[in-house]
Write a structure and sequence with these properties.
It is a single chain. This protein is an all-beta fold. Helices cover about 0% and strands about 50% of the residues. It contains no helices and 11 strands. The radius of gyration is 13 Å and the shape is globular. The protein starts with a strand and ends with a strand.
Amino acid sequence: TVQLVESGGGSVQAGGSLRLSCEVSGDPDYSAATVSWFRQAPGKEREHVACIYTVRGVTAYDYSVKGRFTISQGSTKNTVNLQMNNLKPEDTATYYCAADRTIKVCRAANFDDWGQGIQVTVSS
């Protein structure tokens, strides 16, 4: 089994920035082909935020974050970062990292491996 651990969350004012990181560990042979960030606000469904296909570095974003968030591979294997700029109060949510060994369409139902989630709070 693998473990996904998110870090970097916190509280910021609107217009501020945060950088989330997702580290996949537990299996030295594991190589994530698809890593995705999702978020869930209280009373709402989990929604896709950003996704990266690590082999070629192809990325995809939800329209609500495009131009403000950037997903990228980290400096170590199986680490993916989410740089969040110009944060808005509506970005407030618990953010989750999900990964898969294969190429997946970035929908929550397609992932079996998830992190525990990390809180991001943006105040106006």
